[in-house]
Amino acid sequence: MNAITRIVTDEAAENPRAVIGSNGAPPDPTPFEIVRDKIGKLYDEAALYLDGEPVNSQGMADDIGNLLNLIRAAEKEADEARKDEARPHDDAKAEIQARYNALIGNTKSVKGKTVLASEACKKALQPWLEKLEAEKCAAADKARKEAEEKAAAAQEALRAADAANLEQRAAAEALVKDAKKAERFATKAENDGAKAGSSVFGRAVSLRTSYRPEITDATAFARYLWTAHRDVMDEFLSAQAKRLVDGGARSDALPGVVIHEEKRAV
To answer: Where do the structural domains in the chain lie, given as residue ranges?
Structure first.
């Protein structure tokens, strides 16, 4: 009897049933315990075979091949046991998720009530916030222009003031003070964005600036990436080459690509 046959025979003899009169019979093993013990034995058997020595006979190769098939079968059995044990928890989680998705879900297939209501609020506020933002930007531009004009006038007055004329000097310094006040006002205006809602109820609604790229010259952009971000281009090109080769393309259809044939045990 070889080692593989012994494993199969041992499995058939396991899990003894309780007999009449045996009051202290152990409980039946759980599905996890069954696959745990089976995989443990297979692992130990693999450790005996795979000790670093190369395969030197067809018999040894067949034994290892058979052992691999037993390992695969045990792996499948363990995965099925895992699914069976997890199924009640998965079902409970799915039921909870479904209930809450109706309220707060935000996926391609489900939009909860809070998401729908929030999107409606934002859509209604968007035109008003844009109008208010435009007005504030215009006011900020005006304030900045006035601040720059007052600053220039104050500097000119300082240069023109006679150091011996205290009245001229005082007037120039008053202009400087007024220019600084205008600068603070302009800065405050520039930082004052359009908002809706009171801080009493949380964060005020405002406009958020984002940037969306549009490629107008793919060749120019590719050249830029090739010189400035070569690692990104290498990673992208490698991924595309693998996708094409996995789809059946070969070297004659892929200029600049060498395809290496590899064989692996499956």
So the answer is: 3-16+24-101, 128-206, 218-253
Report CA Rg, the chain: 39
Res 65: pLDDT: 94
Which tens digits make up the pLDDT trace of 123-164? Answer: 999 999 999 999 999 999 999 999 999 999 999 998 888 888
d(CA 135, CA 194): 9
Q: Within the chain, which residues score under 50 in pLDDT?
A: 17-21
Q: How many residues does the chain have?
A: 266
pLDDT at 165: 87
